[in-house]
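During the reporting period the student researcher (J.K.) took over the structure-prediction task from the postdoctoral fellow and processed the backlog of single-chain submissions. One of the processed entries is reproduced below for the supervisory committee.
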Amino acid sequence: MRVDLFDFDLPADRIATRPAVPRDGARLLHVTPQRRADYTVSALPQILRRGDLMVFNDTRVFPARLLGHRGAASVEVLLHKQQSPEIWQGFARPAKRLKPGQTLEFSGGLTAEVLGREGPFVMVRFNHAGAALMAKLAEVGHIPLPPYIQRADDARDRGDYQTVYAARDGAIAAPTAGLHFTPQLLAALDDAGVARTTVTLHVGAGTFLPVTAEDTVDHTMHAEWGEVSAEAATAINGARAAGGRIIAVGTTALRLLETAADDDGTIRPFSGDTAIFITPGTPIKTADLLMTNFHLPKSTLYMLVSAFAGMETMRAAYAHAIAEGYRFYSYGDASVLERAPR
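J.K. obtained the following structure tokens:
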């Protein structure tokens, strides 16, 4: 499909640079094929039904942005994907000047040897490994805010850009639909009989990359590591068999479910990389509803929601959101989308 079919005008003042306070006070647009309704996220227990199952992505964002130097020259590395306890692939700036064998120096005594480079990617070996490396990154690294948030990260972002249920380090971008949940909201969902389970997809830098191709068929997705445990698969399949609806909390959760699903929508345990690209025409086999934020024009995420709920439905929903002052992107407001009829 032509990428320009997914373009729309978005006023700059709709881009959120800080989240709502409290988190579940963010606005929520409920979208069905027939209608739209405005709520706040705190109303989720009234929107969902007893017996429904929410699927959360429990990845944890780590301080993956490193600022340092190579000799006298400044260098920035955005870690992308772990290859071994001490070896990471990342995006580097400036990448073209990096050569194998060079040493990159960061604060706190952290160093990395350049092992190789391919395009914008660089492979580096740190002088720390495993838990020691993650501890050092927590000390000297920066939260990798999305590039459309035009400010430096600060101490507040360490908490704001993390879900309250984050459990497994590895993401460089938050599963942003989950940022709206509070312990109080989770308890209210429990009281309403809405069940939940977790999967893991370590969100990579590819989520920020623009689609530069003119046609979706020519766009290449970057692979991300994910896991659906046997326990999660059993919970999801059991909820569906009992007549409950499956709600994917975030596009990352949906992409992982679709990767792990059989043709009939049965979820199998899964562990490995996924580079699934969901566009209109891709059959959605798993989730009945999708909770997600409002996304960039011409982005793979806007293509995904258009595939899920229907292109015309999403055009109308986004026009409504813009007209009504909804806040967009990672720190913005949320939507709950019902899947378009098959």
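The committee noted the following: The chain has two domains: 3-61+159-338, 65-142.
J.K. will present the remaining backlog at the next meeting.
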